[in-house]
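S.,

As promised, the zinc ion run. Input:
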Amino acid sequence: MNKADTAITQAHHTPPGPSGAAPKTCRRARAQAAGGVSSGALPLVDTQELRPSYSPNGSQPSGPVEVIDPETGEVRYFEPSGKPGILTPKYGQIDHQNTRAERWAMKWALDALLPGSRQFKCHRYRIPGKDLEVKLSLEHQKAFFAGFECCGSVWGCPLCAPKITERRRVEVEAAIGTAKALGFKVMLATFTVPHGMGSDVEVIRKQMMQAWRRGTDSRAGKQMRKMVGLRGYIRVIEVTYGENGFHPHMHVLLVLDTSWSPEIIRRLWYPIWLDGCRKSGLEDPSEAHGVRVDDGERAAQYVTKWGLDSELTKGHLKKGRKSVNPWDLLRVHALGLDHNAIAPELREVFTALGIDEKRAGALFLTFFRAFKGSRQLYWSNGLRALLGLKKEKSDQEVAEEEMDTAAALLATLTDEQRFDLVRTRQLPALLSLAEDSPGLIPEFLASLQKKNRTQ
Ligand SMILES: [Zn+2]
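Predicted complex:
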């Protein structure tokens, strides 16, 4: 057993809540709206004393509250503490420490798959001219590193992708609110292409993008867009892997100036999608599944959950699911099918698909090579301006952004300490220590140094 396994196994000794799933009645608290704790005192002794407050006016929620960490997209659950405006963590620190340890294990697995790559260099080297720091967010009670080089890879990096996706999700959610306030309707359209047994996923991805352009940008496409009152859209690419191989599909949030029903819009859009697919060498999408349009409520639900799927698969895996997502592939490759962090339902899907750890890694690489460099999320021209949003930040810029909440500086690491931590794979262990017993950080770093010298 290597060190990564040990760290994870240890971190998993306490299972999360009853099912690990969010209660249906959960209210989602915006991280920003979660108020803030006084940032005056450094939490060097008992970090558990600081809790996020639910609302500035001190009102109590009636049930559990979900708080999404803006830094990593991790979901944490809080519940009323009995004191006005104060919430206590529902499942405690161990839960998110597990998630973090898993993500680092996935990162190390990726390092072995892509040695020397941008992803390999991510969270390994210091940004030149910057200090490498260990910080603790006072609002979220979570430790994080500042000053590491980031790869900004939304398709391939288990450390950067959740952060990028979560920040984009928050922006999209706000944009939908603005669109509605301006009197527009927002619907969710889903576009799929037929499964081609054994087809090359990179080819399908390119054909699908071509089909979109050749359909919606054609003369007929432009007429249709005008007819349905389309003012703009936000397009998201998602990929699953099932018995017919990789299956990329598009979810598109439509901002419409219309009084028509989703069904009418679907009927008008289907021939355009069909035409685009035919012009791009794809088989005809089915009338039943090629284009689906859902109402505003479904659109809002989709955005609320988007990107959290990889996080939630453990607790929320739907019964009867027959496909896995790329993060499932990397997770199984990194941890092994028998690891207790792999839900039994997910294990069943992998077994049914005949994917073992080694093949999961190879499939993840195939997926990553097909999608790297492409955009996961795309705003149509003019939509951001219509909704009063500034120019979009790049994935790299978002990945490098620091949390804007108050944070305590717990340690500044030397290059030698960084080297020790990377070599011994103790980076997530250091973050957990920073959350549980920050006073022990110097001792921990000294012990690593000693270990490295004696090895
Ligand atoms: Zn990265």
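Residues 119, 122, 150-151, 153, 157, 159-160 surround zinc ion (CB under 6 Å). Residues 3-104+414-454 form one domain.

- D.
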